[in-house]
Amino acid sequence: MRGRGREYRLFALLLAVTAALFVVDMTVGSTSLSIGRVWDALWGNADPTTVKIVRSIRLMKALVAVLAGAALSVSGMQMQTLFRNPLAGPYVLGISSGASLGVALFILGAPLVGASMAQVQQLGVAGAAWAGAAAVLMVIAAVSARMKDIMVVLILGMMFSSGVGAVVQVLQYLSREEALKSFVVWTMGSLGDVTAPQLVILAVAVGAGLLIGIAALKPLNLLMLGEQYAATMGVDLRRSRAVIFISTTLLAGTVTAFCGPIGFVGLAVPHVVRTMFGNADCRVVMPGCVVLGACTMLVCDILSKAGGIPVNAVTALLGIPVVVWIVLKNRN
User: Fold this and answer.
1) What is the C-alpha separation between 50 and 332, in angstroms, rounded?
2) Which pTM was predicted?
């Protein structure tokens, strides 16, 4: 009971910090705003320009940060548990590579066959990224259904990512300057390019991914002890893998589609959560990842806006020390 009480207090503290960071995130930008002005703008009690900045830009960006952080962190936890590998992240199955290929074919490949950038933008970069991620999932799922050893699936996923990366490099080499610039900007990651209709899609997809992830909590806990043990406890390995893969693709694939490939958050946050709570139970780690992931992404967005640098650079600078710590901790 004492341990459970400590967990509740930690959750309450993380929620309070996340709420505070959410408010701070809306005050930071090219024009600094006080918390009072942000509050007035949210209720429409400010000048039209301030209301538009707060409601249409900063509030949207903060909501995207919360959704992206939660989604990437939970998908990272799922991959680390499934593969029993501390360095497995949400993109280990090639989801990010698939999304990058979809965007590369869209932005870089379309001009090569005569389509203008205006026509390409109308079709939607997010749709191309999601289609690429889903295509990779179907390939991996088909392979996984034939493989008994999950580590073989991991290796094949990494090899597939390398192959897709090579194709993307070829497209970059052949592409025109305007298209190449658009693709490079997408790879830097951004939380501010999501429109209101896209935010609804993002929220629904992330919500569905989290619900599917909740349904897979019991198999995940058993898989931590090995697939053979899980099978003896009645876990349908193929079905459980498929459910976890679908959840991961909805979470990481959708975030990548709308925000670009954001690294290190999904890799680092689950380890920090396990250390904070002193517990590896997925029933504790998953909600912890949701809250701490949202908190971490809000911090990254604040630092990104304050420093005027891409959010991917911030996540890397914050995540690399954690990855080094993971490697040293698991050096044996």
Assistant:
1) 55
2) 0.89
